Amino acid sequence: MNPNFLQTPIAYLKGVGPNRAASLQSELGISTYQDLINLFPNRYLDKTQYYKINQLQRSNADIQIVGKVVHLKSVEQKKGKRLVASFVDETGEMELIWFRGQKWIKENIKLNTPYVIFGKTNWYNGKFSMPHPEMELLTVHEQGLKIAMQPIYPSTEKLSAKGITNRVTNKLMQQLFLETKGQFLETLSKDIITELHLLSKSESLFNIHFPKNQELLAKAQFRLKFEELFYIQMQLITKKLIRKRKIKGFNFDQVGELFNTFYKENLPFELTNAQKRVLKEIRADLGSNAQMSRLLQGDVGSGKTIVALMTMLLAIDNGFQATIIAPTEILANQHFNGIKELLGNLNVTVALLTGSVKKSARKIIHEQLENGELHILIGTHAVLEDKVQFHNLGLAIIDEQHRFGVAQRSKLWHKNETPPHILVMTATPIPRTLAMSLYGDLDISVIDELPPGRKVIKTVHRYDANRLKVFGFIKDEIKKGRQIYVVYPLIQESEALDYKDLMDGYESIVRDFPLPDYQISILHGKMKPADKDYEMARFVKGETQIMVATTVIEVGVNVPNASVMIIESAERFGLSQLHQLRGRVGRGADQSFCVLMTSHKLSSDAKTRLETMVRTNDGFEIAEVDLKLRGPGDLMGTQQSGVLNLKIADIVRDNDILKTARFQALKLLKEDPTMEKEDHQVIRYAYAQLVKHKNIWTYIS
Ligand code: ADP
Ligand code: MG
């Protein structure tokens, strides 16, 4: 089969034509034969086989079982009722569950009569269950037609409306196999296929679309998942190798006067060993003639800012400018003030550029940037605008990088002809698996040590009913001179309801903490930047004791004297957000506390989150739990959710396949970096095809 044949426009496939082609393109992004062949089913209806209850597996296939309903009961739950049937065969018992249509089921189901049930099983509380099964009396079923394992394809309402139903998609797929004779070019080497006992490409594609049985389906899925992850790893690793070899970076070979003076005279504390190690890693990059592209991970409060500043000093010592960008104005302001203070009277010029900087001031900044007078530019997204041009940008730092998208990272590349060195920093601990797949092209440094003298933050969970006690505790802490955060969820900045919660909360706090003994600040996203700054500044100076805020203070805010974090409606926050918020305290020498306030109604996920927070302060442990609860898209924040545009593999569930894929990719590139060997030609070719046709990795900048 000529591989170019697969690049034939989909309109030419018999049964498609221009109208359907347009729908397939706009709804599913299918424009060629190749795209259609890579449209993998979401699930399968397996009607080839009857399962016994004791053979059930925790797979996500739909299956059928013959058995009887022996008992029916209604169970009260949070919202309404569910109907539960015990369903038995001669090997065991399971449950059938209905949330809707219960009345009809109750009236029509025949107890102790053989049925064929059909659907997906769940494993819950040590038992298998099937929600909303399709059911048919065995006697009726035996008269009907037996259909084999039927693939269910991704679809959209528009597609079905245009008549492209699952059955049609299925037919098109059959047509495609007819026209291609089911012969597809192999894309993995013999070595890998043999070592991992994989199906061939043609067999895999056949069995993913027309599985003969569960076993072949599982093998086809494994092979295609492996292949997908393998080529992503190939791309990430290659990209890194090329960057190291080819992309010339500015060489910062001077450790000059600014860096040294700062180190000797301005450093307000001894660096931790982890900070020293990371600085060494960064210095090695900067002096290597290649562009640095490094991710710096360090839990909240681990001291990333000082590392960033010292890296910027290295740039300036070598005659370059540097910039640091942060996701919020508050954070940019804080960096600006903090960095200016740290620099003291060192001869370094610093400016702040955010959305609220006035036009006239902005103009001056632009000029000073272009003529090189300005050494350091601190700012928000505003820095990324095309209008902002540097004289010679040598280093760009992105703080709280998980708040930015990949596209923004790449914008920084183009501020110069030679790309600046790039350091991205994040306090979101990224589990290794994810780091591998998302940031496999970056080098990674970790600050895995907190500055000395920090006390572990004590975290407790309290119900709203105990609010008065919590207020009493706040008063005691204020008496000791401490400051307090009270944070309200504001998941959607526009949700009127959330604001009402916040304002009600604020008023009740004002009532319980009256003037003149108590001064209270309030901070939320709808305030004008100048008002925000004002309130923040009062709190930083210690003029107010309580800061009532939304999650705008989530990232980066640093007020060491604030030692109590009260999180209202904590059940509504995700784990990484709770961890970020808690990280706002525990920054000074005093014992810090975090109080998670909730109502009595808690989902089981919410309970897990709260328990995790109470149990541990370890960001990595928290990230692992979070990943299990939510999956990777959410974990990375909405900015990056569609980032990994995977067709078949799942980063969380297919963790082991990912590891295997990375291992094989590394092995191959080490053995034969240019893929010269005979056996590697297929990979070389497939890789070139993928890059050429951009079938995958649309996510890589
Ligand atoms: P993050 O990594 O969350 O950005 P910061 O850079 O804001 O953390 O640092 C948190 C606090 O710890 C700041 O007040 C900073 O001055 C302080 N700090 C950083 N490094 C050290 C150190 N080596 N010894 C003592 N305090 C430090
Ligand atoms: Mg920070």
Structure notes:
- With 701 residues, this protein is α/β, with parallel strands linked by helices.
- Among the domains are: 68 residues, DNA polymerase, domain 1 (Orthogonal Bundle), CATH 1.10.150; 99 residues, Nucleic acid-binding proteins (OB fold (Dihydrolipoamide Acetyltransferase, E2P), Beta Barrel); 155 residues, Rossmann fold (3-Layer(aba) Sandwich); 159 residues, Rossmann fold.
- It is built from 25 helices and 22 strands.
- Strands 1, 2, 3, 4, 5, 6, 7, 8 and 9 form a 9-stranded mixed β-sheet that branches.
- Strand 12, helix 14 and strand 13 form a beta-alpha-beta unit.
- The protein is globular, with a radius of gyration of 30 Å.
- Bound molecules: adenosine-5'-diphosphate and magnesium ion (MG).
- Adenosine-5'-diphosphate binds next to helix 12.
- Magnesium ion binds next to helix 12.
Low-confidence stretches: 633-643, 695-701
Distinct small molecules: adenosine-5'-diphosphate, magnesium ion
Shape label: globular
CATH class of the domain at 458-616: Alpha Beta
The CATH H-level homologous superfamily of the domain at 458-616: P-loop containing nucleotide triphosphate hydrolases
Percent helix range: 40-55%
Assign the CATH topology of the domain at 458-616.
Rossmann fold
Measured distance between first and last alpha carbons: 33 Å
Instruction: Note the beta-strand portion.
Output: 15-25%
Which second-level CATH architecture of the domain at 458-616 applies?
3-Layer(aba) Sandwich
Radius of gyration: 30 Å
Number of strands: 22
Given the helix and strand composition, which structural class is it? alpha/beta
Largest sheet: 9 strands, mixed
**Mean pLDDT across all amino acids:** 86
Tally of alpha and pi helices: 25
